[in-house]
Structures are given as C-alpha cells and as structure tokens.
Amino acid sequence: MPRPRAGPGPPPEDMYDLSMDTMEAQSLCMQRKCLGKSSPLSKYIEAEHQQAGLFSLSSLEAITDVTVDLQKKRRKKCGACVPCLRKVNCGTCANCLNRKIGKQICKERKCEKLKKRQSEGDASEQHLKSRGMGCIPRRRTECGWSAGKLE
DNA sequence: TAGAACGTTATT
DNA sequence: AATAACGTTCTA
C-alpha cells in the first residue's frame, strides 16, 4: 500500500524566505532538502553553517576532512560475494516487485559489502565525538531537537 | 529498526 | 537520455 507522501512536487522556492512562515520553511528544510549529505545543495548549506560560525574554526579542518570522507563517491559492489556473482534478478523479492518505485537492486543480488552502512566500521563518528561534535543533526528529531523548537 | 520512498549519481 | 541502484529520510 503506497503511503501518501509529499510527492514529486516542485521544490519550495521560498525555502529561505523566513518572513513567510519561519517554522514551516525551516521544517521543510529540516525534513529533507537541506540536510541530506549528497546533494550540492546540502554542501552549500554546510558551507553556510560554517560561515555562520556554527562550528569553531579549529575543528573545521578536521570536520571538513571527515565530511569529504563521508561524501565520497558512492560505494560500488565488491563483485566477488555470492550476491554479486548472481546474474539474474529473482523477480519475486520486494525490490524486484517494487523496482520502479523502490529503485533497489534485487535482494538476492545485494552485495554483502553494501548491506552494511557506510559509517559502520568507520571511525568518523568517533572522530567527531572526540572533538565535541558528538551529534550532527540531520533530522529534526536528532540531537534532542524537537519540532517547534528551532530557534 | 526494517522496509519503503525518492533524490541522486554512475553506467550504458 | 534512459536505466540501474546507492544513500538518506521517513513511516510503521
């Protein structure tokens, strides 16, 4: 059952027109567009944050380093594990059946390496924690943030 | 926390 | 340009 989502509507162009409806605009921003890590827009936002002095300059270098690491190109399948060696889609798993919308590879073919999250086994988060940056909010609910408490 | 949805990026 | 599929966010 497809959930009623926001849909592929036009992007909120007045995202930064906070005079309109600050809460709403920020909320939209928080929910998706701005805090994603992969889009050029998010990189721009990141730069904005830095310029706004949200991060101390001393930790900036280290963070930039980590950020670059996290924003590296997307990983590729190892090509050697059992799933990778599989050549045909099963055609019956959720991913196969939901191909058009889900945009995921057949579950039977999902590389073992890619099944793990990118940050797993990576010291990036620890790296940040050691610098007092234990939590980088990517979502409204992270870092003790709550809806309606964005000032 | 797993799975779904969707933006984005890599490949063809 | 079309397609495949990774990465992130959101919902149940």
Question: Would you write up a description of this structure?
Answer:
The protein has helices at 18-33, 40-51, 57-70, 82-85, 94-97, 99-102, 112-115, 124-129. The protein is mostly helical. 42% of the residues lie in helices and 0% in strands. It is built from eight helices and no strands. Among the domains are: 19-74, no CATH class; 75-115, no CATH class. It binds a DNA duplex (12 and 12 nucleotides) through helix 1 and helix 6.
Q: Which features does this protein show?
A:
mainly alpha, 8 helices, about 40% helix, globular, DNA-binding
The percent range for strand residues is under 5%
Number of DSSP-assigned strands:
0
Fraction in helix: 40-55%
Nearest-integer average pLDDT: 58
Rg from C-alpha positions?
19 Å
pLDDT < 50 runs, ≥5 residues: 1-46, 54-58, 121-151
In DSSP terms, counting alpha (H) and pi (I) runs of 4 or more, how many helices?
8
What order do the helices and strands follow? HHHHHHHH
- Report the sheet with the most strands, covering strand number, pairing sense and barrel closure: none
| First-last Cα distance | 37 Å
Shape: globular
- Secondary-structure content class: mainly alpha
Domain CXXC-type: 71-112
Protein name: CXXC-type domain-containing protein
Subcellular location: Cytoplasm
Keywords: Cytoplasm, DNA-binding, Metal-binding, Zinc, Zinc-finger
